[in-house]
Specification:
- The chain has one domain.
- The protein is mainly alpha-helical.
- The protein has helices spanning 4-11, 15-18, 28-44, 47-53, 58-71, 77-86, 92-103, 106-119, 129-143, 157-162, 173-190.
- The radius of gyration is 16 Å and the shape is globular.
C-alpha cells in the first residue's frame, strides 16, 4: 500500500484548518472549498488508513481523529482514548477530544475523565485540559448526564488548575464551551451523513 497518499491526500490539505477549529474563521468561499475537500476525503478514507495515520506524528493523528469523529467510527474509541491519556504529542489531543465527543459513549467519557483526573492536578502541564473539559460538558448536554460536575465549582479541579494561569480565552470555560459547541454544530451541519 502506498502510504504517501493518506499523508498527501488526507492530511496536508486539512490539518491546519482542523487545528484549533480554525475552519470556524474561514470566509464563505474558503469554507465551502474546505467542506467539499473534507467530504471528498471522507468518501475515500478507510479505517485502515485512519489507523495508520494514528501511528505517525501529531498532524496525522490530529487529522485521523477528526476524520474518525466525522465518520462516527467509534471502533477507534479505545485507540484514540489511550492516545489522549498518553499525551505524547502536541495538538493531536484536540482531535482526540473532538472524536471522543462525537462518539459520546460511556467509553468516551471514561477516557476523557481519566485524562482530566490525571492532568488537571498537574498544574505545570498545559496540555489539552480545556478541550477535554469542553468535550465532557458537550457529552453531558447531549446525553443528559453530569460527569463534568466533579471538576466544576469553587473547589473543583478545574478552578484549581486554572488558578495560576494568565487569564485568556483558553482558560475561559465559557469561551471554550462555545467554541466546542460551534465545532460540533459544524460537524452536525456538514458531516452528519457520513
Amino acid at each position: 500500500m502506498d502510504f504517501s497518499k493518506p499523508i498527501d491526500h488526507f492530511v496536508q490539505p486539512h490539518y491546519l484548518k482542523l487545528l484549533g477549529g480554525n475552519f470556524l474563521r474561514l470566509e464563505e468561499r474558503e469554507l465551502s472549498e474546505f467542506v467539499n475537500s473534507v467530504r471528498k476525503a471522507l468518501d475515500e478514507i478507510e479505517p485502515n488508513q485512519v489507523e495508520r495515520l494514528l501511528r505517525i506524528s501529531w498532524r496525522e493523528q490530529l487529522t485521523a481523529a477528526w476524520f474518525a469523529g466525522f465518520k462516527n467510527w467509534s471502533q477507534f474509541t479505545s485507540r484514540i482514548g489511550n492516545l489522549l491519556i498518553q499525551s505524547l504529542t502536541c495538538y493531536a489531543g484536540q482531535g482526540y477530544c473532538f472524536a471522543l465527543a462525537c462518539f459520546a459513549n460511556a467509553d468516551s467519557v471514561n477516557y476523557l475523565t481519566r485524562y482530566l483526573d490525571e492532568y488537571l492536578p498537574q498544574l505545570d502541564k498545559d496540555y489539552d485540559q480545556p478541550w477535554a473539559m469542553a468535550a465532557v460538558i458537550w457529552i453531558d448536554r447531549l446525553n443528559g448526564t453530569n460527569h463534568s460536575s466533579k471538576y466544576l465549582g469553587p473547589n473543583g479541579l478545574w478552578e484549581h488548575f486554572i488558578a495560576d494561569k494568565v487569564p485568556h480565552g483558553a482558560w475561559s470555560l465559557q469561551q471554550r464551551n462555545l467554541h466546542f459547541e460551534n465545532m460540533m454544530s459544524f460537524r452536525n451541519k456538514w458531516f452528519v451523513d457520513f
